[in-house]
UniProtKB/TrEMBL annotation:
This is Peptidoglycan bridge formation glycyltransferase FemA/FemB family protein. Gene3D superfamilies: 3.40.630.30. InterPro entries: Acyl_CoA_acyltransferase, FEMABX, PG_Glycine_Bridge_Synth. GO terms for molecular function: aminoacyltransferase activity. It comes from the Bacteria. PANTHER family: LIPID II:GLYCINE GLYCYLTRANSFERASE. Keywords: Acyltransferase, Cell shape, Cell wall biogenesis/degradation, Peptidoglycan synthesis, Transferase. One of its GO terms (biological process) is peptidoglycan biosynthetic process. It comes from Streptomyces coryli. The lineage of its organism: Bacteria, Bacillati, Actinomycetota, Actinomycetes, Kitasatosporales. The keyword Cell wall biogenesis/degradation applies. Belongs to the FemABX family. Signal peptide: none annotated.
Length: 373
């Protein structure tokens, strides 16, 4: 296949994404509006023989201070045939195009899964005192083609980023936790939850925890719970304006792409979450909870409602997003995987993010700047 790459309209970009079974929410055109501090461009690949569009990418450009040179970032993208044997013929025109746009470095996140671990295997790893990392546990599924993709990228000069990521961008998680929904009944899904999760869902039901959907007018209440969570878990919260912008941008492009949920007890909102939908892939995006009434298990009730809604929409995957690969109970990030593994789903490792320095001097300067920040 001979390919041509060019800038495309938002309409062409969205139509291509909607023709697929699923794609990352970071690769829809409206994600460029969410990331207001970046400049966005939609690019498309076309088959020269038929003229048919065969790929798309959302590129986010971030300018270096005082210099008209840019980091070009394709989060969880581009959306192309990653297993194509002629991968260079897809990526080399992209690099040339981005360089012509003033990019000094390119960062991308191939949406390619390399390994999967079942909940049972992870639990065995947690129980083994010699196992400290997910990668120390034998994977249940290994995708050999993903290793071939990594080899091709290295041969082209792409460099694998650190797990923690770099660049200006919000680094996307390398390890995620997903609940497969395809060819399963909701009863099967619930049965795969561990005993604690099922008990907590019953406890919430018995305590009359109510899960309701919210709207744009409810973001002040969302922010209240989110900032309580940020203080408790010691991270810097995003401003309310960011979530409102996300809601307007994503739902303005395709209504229903972003949803918000609240778990209430005795009329009080005690937990909240946002959910994103693109095709058959549904993500639990952000979560928040109060410091009290945790004993009525609002978060479990809310996740179960969101998962049921995803199933009703015909989703193939309910994605609980990022986890650390730590299985060390003394690590402060351990609770994240412990909570998510209770759903009986599976951990997935993506290829991670990759960098291509178009200008090695500026790329190195960026690395130094980020390491000192």
């Amino acid at each position: 296949m001979s390919l041509t790459l060019r800038t495309i309209s938002r309409e062409e970009h969205l139509a291509y994404i909607q023709s697929l079974p699923a794609a990352s929410h970071c690769q829809v055109p409206a994600w460029g509006d969410v990331k207001a501090e970046w400049r966005a461009e939609s690019i498309g690949w076309f088959d020269d023989r038929t003229g048919e569009q065969v790929g798309a990418g959302l590129v986010l450009y971030r300018q270096l201070p005082k210099v008209k040179r840019y980091l070009a970032y394709l989060p969880e993208g581009p959306v192309i045939d990653w297993y194509a044997p002629n991968l260079a013929e897809w990526l080399e025109p992209m690099l040339a195009h981005l360089k012509s746009r003033g990019a000094f470095s390119v960062k991308m996140g191939p949406p390619v899964v390399i390994r999967r671990w079942s909940a049972a295997s992870i639990k065995k790893g947690i129980a083994d005192p010699d196992v400290k990392r997910l990668r120390d546990v034998e994977a249940d599924v290994i995708e050999p083609r993903a290793f071939e993709v990594a080899d091709r990228l290295r041969r082209m000069g792409w460099q694998q980023g650190e797990d923690g990521g770099a660049g200006f961008g919000d680094v996307q998680p390398r390890y995620v936790f997903q609940v497969p929904l395809a060819d399963r009944s909701l009863e099967d899904v619930l049965k795969s939850f561990n005993q604690l999760w099922r008990r907590n869902i019953k406890k919430a039901d018995k305590a009359s925890v109510e899960v309701v959907e919210g709207g744009l007018e409810d973001f002040a209440e969302w922010q209240r719970l989110y900032e309580i969570t940020a203080e408790r878990d010691q991270f810097r919260p995003r401003p309310q304006a960011y979530f409102e912008r996300m809601w307007k941008a994503l739902n303005g492009e395709v209504p229903g792409t972003m949803r918000m949920y609240f778990a209430r007890h005795e009329g009080e909102n005690v937990a909240a979450a946002t959910m994103l939908v693109v095709g058959g892939h549904v993500w639990y995006s952000y979560g928040a909870s109060a410091n009290h009434k945790r004993e009525v298990r609002p978060s479990n009730a809310m996740q179960w409602r969101m998962l049921q809604d995803a199933y009703t929409m015909g989703a193939k995957v309910y994605d609980l997003r990022g986890i650390s690969d730590t299985l060390d109970e003394s690590d402060h990030l351990f609770g994240l995987i412990q909570f998510k593994v209770g759903t009986g789903g599976e951990a997935a490792e993506y290829l991670g993010e990759w960098d291509f320095p178009l200008n090695k001097l500026l790329h190195k300067a960026l690395d130094i700047y980020m390491s000192r920040r």
